[in-house]
């Protein structure tokens, strides 16, 4: 076969071709001798001939001889300079070639070094992935720390562009997430293994299973702890509100925990781009004071025991569509900065949203609250949609503030529905609402429900379903020269009349009657 990669031209040939000898260099010695002998001969003979045959004076002939010698010496000097210059050019070309060769050698060495580093890094990656399957918790933990360190190394590798750094890191992140998603049979016994004593009729070695269970809890939580350390950080004001978010080095990665068995606490951690769709949460799942910096996805997630989100912060959208809370769900003091979607969610036990803050839209369309639903002192800054929601036990919206539209159309309340002290600032609709055992409460000795007088009176709609055993007892209330139909005992207020010193609205109506 023909050789498509001919051997490189030797350096000497490259220099030779780049600097071909000019004619005065090729004949330098001849020219030097010729000009020296010829110039000397002319300087001796020509003045003598002119003095002898042309009558030139002796002084003039001597002066001519001297000039001829000067010219000859000048020509010889020029030739010497030309030869020196050509030699210097050759030396310079050789030095440049040496420098270029050294640079090429350095680049080659650097490429070889980078290839070696990358190969060694991938070798460590392969070994660490194998460690995740080891039966010893300490080995698995070591594999996790190795993988975490490798992600940081790829991100700090200046030999790669940002996209390549991200790509290499995401591969390792995917493996860590895959480990979190992997099944763990003892999670099914989480409630028993969290106890202090062995339950009656326990199948298996309780002490051994409990030790293995707690070890795996620590190992898997470590993954989230390391992710949290590299996630966004926050600057807060005196009120604890986030005023600036500083992205972390792992902020651009995607974290897929869908269908994962979660049987350990994730409290006080920062979880970025956490996708928990269809995940199953065993034992008492705790996200207390956790921070979700990007979209938090809990679509169709199942919480088999208590779900603790007390004080959790969701800085982007929080999606709990179709989630199932089989025990208590506690969102006390939780803050939802963007949209919160609980449409179709099922709360089998108590649902606690006391003091929660929904900065954007809150969607509870079709949600099912089997036990008490407590929204006491909750703040809805934008729209709150409870259309088709079902409240099997007590529903408490006392002192809740609805700054946007409040939609309870077709909502079903089996027991008490309390709105006393609540504040409705936007459109409010209870069209086709159903109250099975008790009429809704909008006023009692603790205080009346307040409705803004700045909306259109037609934006307040209180109309129950035709088959509802109980309905609204409404009356008229007047303010700002307009008449509103409100539940009896409720009052109107002018939002522009807030008195900061008294901490109350100064322009309010008489209770509706």
Helix/strand layout:
Layout: H1 11-18, H2 23-26, H3 28-53, H4 58-131, H5 137-155, H6 162-181, H7 190-193, H8 206-229, E1 233-236, E2 242-246, E3 255-256, E4 261-262, E5 270-271, E6 274-275, E7 280-281, E8 285-286, E9 291-292, E10 296-297, E11 302-303, E12 307-308, E13 313-314, E14 318-319, E15 324-325, E16 329-330, E17 335-336, E18 340-341, E19 346-347, E20 351-352, E21 357-358, E22 362-363, E23 368-369, E24 373-374, E25 379-380, E26 384-385, E27 390-391, E28 395-396, E29 401-402, E30 406-407, E31 412-413, E32 417-418, E33 423-424, E34 428-429, E35 434-435, E36 443-444, E37 447-448, E38 450-452, E39 460-461, E40 474-479, E41 482-487, E42 491-493, E43 498-499, E44 504-505
Parallel strand pairs: 3-6, 4-7, 5-9, 7-11, 8-12, 9-13, 10-14, 11-15, 12-16, 13-17, 14-18, 15-19, 16-20, 17-21, 18-22, 19-23, 20-24, 21-25, 22-26, 23-27, 24-28, 25-29, 26-30, 27-31, 28-32, 29-33, 30-34, 31-35, 33-38, 34-39, 38-42
Antiparallel strand pairs: 1-2, 36-37, 40-41, 43-44
Helix pairs in contact: 1-4, 3-4, 4-5, 5-6, 5-8
């Amino acid at each position: 076969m023909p050789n498509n990669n001919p051997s490189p031209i030797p350096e000497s040939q490259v220099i030779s071709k780049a600097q071909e000898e000019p004619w005065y260099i090729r004949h330098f010695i001849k020219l030097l001798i010729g000009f020296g002998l010829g110039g000397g001969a002319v300087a001796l003979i020509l003045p003598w001939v002119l003095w002898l045959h042309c009558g030139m004076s002796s002084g003039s002939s001597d002066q001519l001889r001297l000039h001829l010698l000067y010219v000859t010496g000048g020509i010889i000097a020029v030739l010497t300079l030309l030869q020196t210059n050509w030699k210097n050019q050759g030396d310079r070309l050789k030095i440049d070639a040496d420098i270029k060769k050294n640079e090429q050698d350095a680049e080659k060495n650097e490429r070889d070094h980078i290839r070696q580093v990358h190969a060694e890094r991938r070798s460590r990656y392969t070994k660490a992935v194998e460690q995740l399957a080891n039966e010893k918790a300490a080995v698995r933990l070591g594999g996790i720390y190795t993988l975490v360190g490798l992600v940081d190394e790829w991100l700090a590798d200046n030999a790669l562009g940002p996209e390549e750094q991200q790509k290499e890191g995401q591969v390792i992140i995917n493996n860590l997430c895959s480990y979190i998603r992997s099944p763990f049979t003892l999670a099914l016994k989480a409630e028993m293994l969290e106890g202090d004593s062995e339950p009656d009729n326990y199948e298996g070695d309780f002490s051994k299973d409990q030790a293995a269970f707690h070890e795996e809890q620590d190992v898997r939580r470590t993954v989230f702890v390391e992710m949290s350390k590299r996630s966004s950080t926050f600057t807060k004001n005196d009120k604890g509100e986030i005023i600036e978010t500083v992205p972390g080095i792992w902020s651009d990665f995607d974290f897929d925990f869908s269908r994962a068995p979660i049987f350990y606490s994730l409290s006080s951690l920062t979880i970025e781009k956490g996708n928990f769709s269809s995940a199953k949460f065993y034992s008492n799942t705790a996200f207390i004071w956790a921070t979700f910096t990007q979209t938090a996805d809990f679509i169709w997630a199942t919480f088999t025991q208590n779900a603790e989100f007390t004080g959790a912060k969701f800085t982007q959208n929080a999606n709990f569509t179709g989630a199932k809370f089989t025990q208590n769900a506690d969102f006390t003091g939780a803050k939802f900065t963007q949209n919160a979607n609980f449409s179709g969610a099922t709360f089998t036990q108590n649902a606690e949203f006391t003091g929660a803050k929904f900065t954007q839209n809150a969607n509870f369309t079709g949600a099912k609250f089997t036990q008490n639903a407590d929204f006491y002192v909750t703040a809805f800054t934008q729209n709150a949609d409870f259309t088709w929601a079902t409240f099997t036990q007590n529903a408490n919206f006392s002192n809740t503030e609805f700054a946007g539209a409040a939609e309870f159309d077709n909502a079903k309340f089996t027991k008490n529905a309390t709105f006393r002290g609540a504040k409705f600032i936007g459109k409010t609709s209870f069209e086709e609402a159903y109250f099975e055992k008790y009429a809704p409460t909008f006023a009692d000795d603790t205080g009346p429900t307040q409705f803004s007088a700045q909306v259109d009176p037609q934006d307040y709609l209180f109309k129950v379903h035709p088959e509802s055993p109980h309905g609204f007892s409404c009356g008229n209330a007047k303010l700002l020269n307009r008449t509103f139909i409100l539940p009896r005992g409720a009052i109107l207020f002018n939002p522009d009349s807030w008195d900061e010193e008294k901490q109350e609205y100064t322009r309010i109506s008489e209770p509706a009657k």
